[in-house]
TrEMBL record:
Family listed: Belongs to the BlaI transcriptional regulatory family.
Highest rank taxon of the organism: Bacteria
Gene Ontology biological process terms, A to Z: negative regulation of DNA-templated transcription
InterPro entries per UniProt: BlaI_family (IPR005650), WH-like_DNA-bd_sf (IPR036388), WH_DNA-bd_sf (IPR036390)
Record keywords: DNA-binding, Transcription, Transcription regulation
The species this protein was found in: Arthrobacter yangruifuii
Protein name according to UniProt: Transcriptional regulator
Molecular function in Gene Ontology: DNA binding
Amino acid sequence: MATLGELERAMMDLLWESSDAATANELREKLAQREDSGDGKGLAVTTVLTVLSRLEKKALVQRERKIRPHRYRAVTSRAEHTAELMHEALGTANDREAVLARFVGSVSDSEAQMLRRLLGA
């Protein structure tokens, strides 16, 4: 699974937070609001489209091509994406047990309870 750059992550955060698909201009406006730079300038829409194209190639977003302007939506949820990253990281470990033990040893008590509950289900 591909890693995300800062702008890619910011755009994915916006898409994950919304249940609706968004146009490049809508995403550009939301990013500008978050930055709150005060200078009235944000990213060029071409920059946003380039980032969306990269995210589409990484199979993280889907473009709705039937209407103009195209609308984009996340292919998976944030939780699914994060779980896939965790699974991928675990898959690269030579000693999976040691990695899992280290991870489990670093979780909070409430997270440990949650893990027990999930494993028992």
